[in-house]
């Protein structure tokens, strides 16, 4: 049964401007431990790819917070929710700390998809109850 859905669209230009103003502190606030490593690798190779990665993760976390009906308040934090890639390439949600405990206690499972184009990143999340 569906517990909640969330979607978000993000202007990559806005993320780029924020990153230019605040530097890596912005990325470190939004990205979890695994994500920050991927971000740094992508940014070093092709800066636009790094910024697009940051934008898709920002968008996915916003969509996830909407799907669980919590918004950005405890235990939902930027770094407690990571969007990682499964071996197949499929994006998945990995939760940490209190958010992971809350999610497991509710018996929930999440599905996420992300996409980006030149100026926009988008994400869609479906959260369902586990059978």
TrEMBL record:
<keyword id="KW-0963">Cytoplasm</keyword>
<keyword id="KW-0276">Fatty acid metabolism</keyword>
<dbReference type="Pfam" id="PF01648">
    <property type="entry name" value="ACPS"/>
</dbReference>
<comment type="similarity">
    <text>Belongs to the P-Pant transferase superfamily. AcpS family.</text>
</comment>
<dbReference type="InterPro" id="IPR004568">
    <property type="entry name" value="Ppantetheine-prot_Trfase_dom"/>
</dbReference>
<feature type="binding site">
    <location>
        <position position="8"/>
    </location>
    <ligand>
        <name>Mg(2+)</name>
    </ligand>
</feature>
<feature type="domain" description="4'-phosphopantetheinyl transferase">
    <location>
        <begin position="4"/>
        <end position="124"/>
    </location>
</feature>
<keyword id="KW-0479">Metal-binding</keyword>
<keyword id="KW-0460">Magnesium</keyword>
<dbReference type="GO" id="GO:0005737">
    <property type="term" value="C:cytoplasm"/>
</dbReference>
<dbReference type="GO" id="GO:0008897">
    <property type="term" value="F:holo-[acyl-carrier-protein] synthase activity"/>
</dbReference>
<keyword id="KW-0808">Transferase</keyword>
<dbReference type="GO" id="GO:0000287">
    <property type="term" value="F:magnesium ion binding"/>
</dbReference>
<keyword id="KW-0444">Lipid biosynthesis</keyword>
<dbReference type="GO" id="GO:0006633">
    <property type="term" value="P:fatty acid biosynthetic process"/>
</dbReference>
<keyword id="KW-0443">Lipid metabolism</keyword>
<dbReference type="InterPro" id="IPR008278">
    <property type="entry name" value="4-PPantetheinyl_Trfase_dom"/>
</dbReference>
<dbReference type="InterPro" id="IPR037143">
    <property type="entry name" value="4-PPantetheinyl_Trfase_dom_sf"/>
</dbReference>
<comment type="function">
    <text>Transfers the 4'-phosphopantetheine moiety from coenzyme A to a Ser of acyl-carrier-protein.</text>
</comment>
<feature type="binding site">
    <location>
        <position position="62"/>
    </location>
    <ligand>
        <name>Mg(2+)</name>
    </ligand>
</feature>
<keyword id="KW-0275">Fatty acid biosynthesis</keyword>
<protein>
    <recommendedName>
        <fullName>Holo-[acyl-carrier-protein] synthase</fullName>
        <ecNumber>2.7.8.7</ecNumber>
    </recommendedName>
</protein>
<dbReference type="InterPro" id="IPR002582">
    <property type="entry name" value="ACPS"/>
</dbReference>
């Amino acid at each position: 049964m569906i517990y909640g859905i969330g979607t978000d669209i993000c202007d990559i230009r806005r993320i780029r401007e924020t990153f230019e103003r605040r530097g890596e502190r912005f990325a470190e606030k939004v990205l979890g431990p695994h994500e920050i490593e991927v971000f740094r690798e992508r940014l070093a190779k092709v800066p636009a790819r790094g910024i697009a990665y940051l934008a898709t993760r920002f968008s996915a976390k916003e969509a996830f917070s909407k799907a669980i009906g919590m918004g950005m308040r405890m235990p939902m934090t930027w770094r407690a929710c990571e969007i990682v890639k499964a071996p197949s390439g499929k994006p998945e949600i990995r939760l940490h700390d209190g958010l992971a405990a809350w999610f497991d206690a509710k018996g929930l499972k999440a599905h996420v998809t992300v996409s980006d184009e030149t100026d926009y990143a988008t994400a869609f999340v479906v959260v369902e109850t586990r059978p």
